[in-house]
Every structure is written in structure tokens, then in C-alpha cells.
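Human: I would love a firmer grasp of how sequence relates to backbone shape in proteins. Take your time, and here it is.
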Amino acid sequence: MKRTLIRSLEENLNKNVIIKGWVHRVRRLKGITFIILRDRSGMVQCVVDNKEPIIHGLKCESVLEVSGTVKEGKNSLNNFELAVKSLKVLSKVEEDLPIEINGEELNISLDTMLNNRILSLRHEKKNAIFRIQHIIVEGFREFLSREGFIEIFTPKIVAEGAEGGTALFKLNYFGRDAYLAQSPQFYKQMMVASGYERVFEIGNFFRAEEHDTARHLNQFTSMDLELAFIEDEQDIMDIEEEMLKHIINKLELEGARYFKMLNVDIPKIVAPIPRIEFEDAARVLKENYNKIVTDNDLDPEGERLLSEYAKEKYNSEFIFITNYSRKKRPMYTMPKGINGTRSFDLIFKGTEITSGGQRIHDYDMLVESFKIKGLNYENFSSYVNVFKYGVPPHGGLAIGLERLLALLLGINNIRETSAFPRDRSRLTP
């Protein structure tokens, strides 16, 4: 007999089935024992006669194969239960668990959680985080594929940094200096130039900053896209807005029960996401919040206040900030006027989740931009030389997956939204 998932048991009332999963909880009474069994689809109450020898000494998280008949029966989990005919232990628990995972909440420190990562992910609320992550990634891929993008896979070992050579992890590549990739920026532009026009990637990238904050990781997942034949950065923002609507709709259809479990509301995009230029944003901060912007950039407090402003004025949890200073944008960013750029950030719930914009597609302009940034363009020849041979106007963006997920779920530390986070102190598990 084939295995039946717990979510399908209600369709099999009064039928004999085989289920497999982990022992979530055991409650022994005088004549019977209730075993709550858990698989990837849910939990069910199994009713076992105490004459069954296996149940004596059975520990939580043991892996069982259970055969029995599905019966109607109201309990805290379902309107049905399993009357057990036989039990088989597939894998027994050898020692007491280091953390308790069958409570409503997992009340342990973040470090303890990560040190016991596999066990912690068995807790239904921690498990739900990465089911939501899967829906987001699937929605991103689904939308872009529908819009004519193709998925690419770029190198993670590179000869130069895409962001000007800072914060790179250096390694020895058969006697040559190489680095772990900061982003797929150069490669996605080159793939656009190769004739694919529209490309995307979901991949791991690396930043060597020695930060220790709740919003940064040294290895993170970036959702990137790049597309050709745009008019300007507005086209990029347009496609991101439509993509976010698609992802949110997918979360509502497929992830509502996980959000309910976590007691979190799914965000709405009820109107066009507001777009304001950086100088206007700085003026809003000064006039409305007595906040002075320095160094042509927004600090975390500035991002938080602009989110408040967007919510109050536009009833939007998202806001685009555009036209950042050329000093604060990479060398490949298309200039706008003397000091501005055709760039943007998207802020969500007080934190930047996207950076993007139009890229320079003219060879001479790109070379000049490298010089302005104090960089030797010859060190980036495999990238720069592409622009000698006809590159269309193009642009793109990058979304930090873990950061987006943390903000969606109201999680305070981004490490919790990485299955196996890497920061300056953590290399295991």
C-alpha cells in the first residue's frame, strides 16, 4: 500500500491507509495512547491500544510508519483521526532532544535555534518561514518566465568585484587571485547584451563586510533581473511593481495558512507605489520629522521615517526613492543630469529591499564613469569590452530574499530567514 499524506486523510474516511512521519507528541491514558504524528503536510491524532508494545518508551521525534483506518473524530487538530492497526519504528530517537519543539512557540535564543537548526525547523512556525520563502521564489520565477525572461546561472568565483572591488572574499584560484561574487551584475548585463534581452537569476552571493547587524548576512540570496530596450528606470520600477503584485497574490492563494499561523498580515498594493526623488525625500524628512539627511544617502532611521510617510500620505507599505546621487551609485549606473542617476531603491516597512535602475550602455560613457570612480577600467576588460559591440539601453534590479522575507513576517533578525546563515562568526551547521 502506498503512503498517504496526512492532508489527504479526510478524503479516505473509513479506509485503510499507511502514513509516515515524526512523533510530535505522546499522551498515554489507562487503556489507549494518543500519538500526534506529523509529516510535511500536517498533523493527525493516532489512537493506539496500549497492548501495542512499541509505544512503551516511544520518544518524541521518532520516525514511524503507521497503518490504520481513518475514522471521524473531533479533536484539536482535525475532524478525523487514525485508528491504528500496526506501528513500525523507522528511526528511533537515541537521546533526549536538546530543545523542545512541540510547544506552540519555540522559546529559545537565536543562537540556540541555529545551533540546533534541523530540529528547530521541525517546529511548525519555523518551518512555515521557508514554505513562505519557497512561494516568494516560485512567484518571482513564475512572473518573469511569463514575461519572457530566461533564468541564468552566473559564476560565483570571479576575477573582479562588481561593486568597485570593496568587501570581497579573496581566494587562491590555482595561483591567481580570485574572489567570491558580490552580485551577478556584470554577467546579467552581458547576457542581456548577448541577445537574450531579458534574464533573471536567483543565487547566493557574498559580501565581506565585518558587520554584525540584524539586517545583514555575509552570504545571502539575491533575486536579480535585467532587461533590454527600456526607456529609463521607470520601466524597471513598473515591472517590479507588477512582479510584487503577482507574488503577493500567490502568497494569498498558497500561503495564507502560514501567515495565519505566524499571526502576520499579507501586505497589499492597492494603488501605484509612490515614487519620489531623493531630494524630495530629504525635504520630507527635514520638514515632517526634523531629520537632516547627510552624505547623500538614507540611514536606517531615514528609511523608517519615509515608510511612515508613505503609509500616512499614500496608504502604501512600499515607496520608491529615485535619483540618488552619482557619488552613491556604482560606476555602471546611468547618470541623470550633472549629479543624479537613473536609479532607485524600494523601501518596504522601513527598510530598503531593492536597489536598481538604468545602466550605462555606451562604451565611452562607461569608461568615463570608471575613471570618475577612480577605477581602472582595464581591470574589468572582460565586462567593459562587451560595450564596444552594441549594447541596447537596459536596466535591472536586485532583491535580497532573506531581508524581504524577514520584513514580510516581522522577524527582527535576518539570520532567522536563512536556513543556514553565514555571518562573521558562523560557519556551521
Remarks:
- The two ends are 37 Å apart (CA to CA).
